[in-house]
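Subject: two folds for Thursday's group meeting

Dear M.,

Sorry for the delay on this. The cluster queue was jammed most of the week, so I only got both jobs back this morning. I'm pasting them in the order they finished. Each block is the input sequence followed by the predicted structure tokens. Could you check whether the formatting survives your parser before we put anything on slides? The first protein is the one we discussed after the seminar.
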Amino acid sequence: MAAAFLICGIFVQGTQAALAQEAAGHTIEIHAKRFSFVPAEITVKKGETVKLVITSDDVEHALVIPGLHVNAKVKKGQPAEVTITPDKVGDFDGKCGHFCGTGHASMTFVVHVTNSE
């Protein structure tokens, strides 16, 4: 009987963890490297909570997306996390916000926000 209780407890804990993860949305990993972001474009849904994990593969960078109020500095070996929940549909342009060399101006990023339906 104790074993059945333990199995039930594990199931409940697993279900709670899954629900918490679903409520938090999903995670998108973005790599910054002279002179690009990979991926350079992402698509998310309006009202969806998304965690962006930005990692530098070489030097200090920053991901700045003014329309989504994102300004995340990232150093090599120290990923930055930003959570967004877009409240409007459209394309939001981003760029590197920390001078990283001669190709810095070409480091662009786009977030496409679509209807949640």
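Second protein, same layout:
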Amino acid sequence: MPWYAWLIIILALGSIVGSLMLLRDSARKLPLTEEQLKRIHERNVEMDAKDAQDR
């Protein structure tokens, strides 16, 4: 392979890795109250029960 093909490959990989790192750094947790967490957990239990029932 010529040198410029390697350069293009390295630039493409660097761009992908850089974008993923930027995405990871910009992600932040959602501040949820205890009530919201409780409702989410209850809903998850209901959905798991419904999925188990459907099978």
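Two things I noticed about the second structure. The chain has a mean pLDDT of 94. Residues 3-26 form the longest helix (24 residues).

Cheers,
T.
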